[in-house]
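wait is this the right file?? whatever heres the structure
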């Protein structure tokens, strides 16, 4: 904790004049560029990898970057509230679901036997059961490492499908004022891959904007990245 407290002191002492203006302006409200859904994993720093500022990304973080499908009676109210607030109140123009390499949640999802004694993690990952089943059905021939790699990608696509079940998202998509994107961040190389529905694969972001997922995607076989 000492490192964190020292960090606060350093931050307050070294905020640049331009940044002070930025922080002062933030007091008037927020107008984020996107709802950014990603894993709780400490190795992912969304503002760092997108070179964005405070106020730019509305974050939803949890183990495995999951967005459970909407359910009016027993929805996961935490993520549903974040989605609803970002889309219906802040009117973000984009939602990015960003998975990442070497995701412990995905590794656990594929090896549920290792979750004995961790009932909360085990229960939460039931929200990713569709991902586990897809990987089991389509990628059983791959090595363990390759299966984790494709599972990370399939999991991103599954969450994008879940997002469409949220009324605020469905309404915004219907009015064409929201775009959905699926990303995978490979932290060991600093690369970010985005799902391109035209080729049904995740491709490296190279400066061009990849098409958003305007339409549902069909059968596909994700390749390792
Ligand atoms: Zn993770």
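ok assuming it is, sequence goes like this
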């Amino acid at each position: 904790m000492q490192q964190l407290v020292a960090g606060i002191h350093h931050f307050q002492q070294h905020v640049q004049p331009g940044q002070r203006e930025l922080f002062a302006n933030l007091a008037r409200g927020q107008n984020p560029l996107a709802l950014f859904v990603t894993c709780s994993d400490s190795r992912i720093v969304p503002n760092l990898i997108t070179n964005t500022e405070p106020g730019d990304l509305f974050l939803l973080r949890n183990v495995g970057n999951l967005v459970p499908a909407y359910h009016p009676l027993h929805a996961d109210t935490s993520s549903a509230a974040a989605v609803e607030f970002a889309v219906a109140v802040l009117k973000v123009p984009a939602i990015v679901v960003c998975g990442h390499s070497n995701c412990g949640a995905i590794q656990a999802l594929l090896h549920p036997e290792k979750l004995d004694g961790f009932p909360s993690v085990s229960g939460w990952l039931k929200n990713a059961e569709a991902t586990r089943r897809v990987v089991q059905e389509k990628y059983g021939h791959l090595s363990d490492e390759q299966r984790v790699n494709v599972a990370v990608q399939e999991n991103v696509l599954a969450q994008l499908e879940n997002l469409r079940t949220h009324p605020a998202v469905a309404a915004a998509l219907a009015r064409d004022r929201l775009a959905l994107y699926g990303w995978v961040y490979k932290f060991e190389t600093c690369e970010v891959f985005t799902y391109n529905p035209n080729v049904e694969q995740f491709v490296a972001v190279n400066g061009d904007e990849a098409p958003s997922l305007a339409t549902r995607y069909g059968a596909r076989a994700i390749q390792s990245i």
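The mean pLDDT is 91. so i think its the right one actually
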